[in-house]
Amino acid sequence: KGFFWLQGETDADNQSDTYLADINNMWSSMKSDCPSINDNTPFVAGTISEQTLPVYGPIINGNIRSFSDSLINSAVVDTTDLTLIDDFHYNAEGLRVIGQRMAVAYLGVI
């Protein structure tokens, strides 16, 4: 089992200052609501694209890394080099690469 996270683009324009608190609250809620999720559950996150979010994207990505660093079994995969089909969504090849990177990262933390 594991938890995979790839989200933050919407937060990058108006909630970047609360993203770290929000993701911590989400994780606490997940642990409370889902008995199979606990402090030892592997957590793998992807960064968000900074192509269309040059100001706040790096802030969100820093928060994703900080949150991941606070967990026992976690990893972050970089997605900033992948191609988007619009302002936020990766193309099919990018999604495949994200899946591959997350699988490798997951295997590294279990």
Structural features:
3 strands, 110 residues
Task: Please give a structural write-up.
- It is a single chain.
- The chain has 110 residues and is mainly alpha-helical.
- The chain has four helices and three strands; from the N terminus they run E-H-H-E-H-E-H.
- The protein has helices at 11-14, 19-33, 57-69, 92-109, and strands spanning 3-5, 43-46, 74-77.
- It has a three-stranded parallel sheet with strand order 1-2-3, sandwiched between helices.
- Strand 2, helix 3 (57-69) and strand 3 form a beta-alpha-beta unit.
- Helix 2 (19-33) crosses helix 3.
- The N and C termini lie close together (9 Å).
- The model has no long low-confidence stretch (mean pLDDT 93).
Structural class: mainly alpha
Question: Could you tell me how far the N terminus lies from the C terminus, measured between alpha carbons in angstroms?
Answer: 9 Å
The total count of strands amounts to 3
Residue runs with pLDDT of under 50 for 5 or more positions: none
Order of helices and strands: EHHEHEH
Question: How many H/I helical runs?
Answer: 4
Q: Give the overall form.
A: globular
- Order of strands in the sheet with most strands: 1-2-3
What proportion of the residues is helical, as a percent range? 40-55%
Major sheet summary line: 3 strands, parallel
Average pLDDT number = 93
Radius of gyration: 14 Å
Strand fraction equals 5-15%
How are the secondary structure elements laid out?
Blueprint: E1 3-5, H1 11-14, H2 19-33, E2 43-46, H3 57-69, E3 74-77, H4 92-109
Parallel strand pairs: 1-2, 2-3
Helix pairs in contact: 2-3
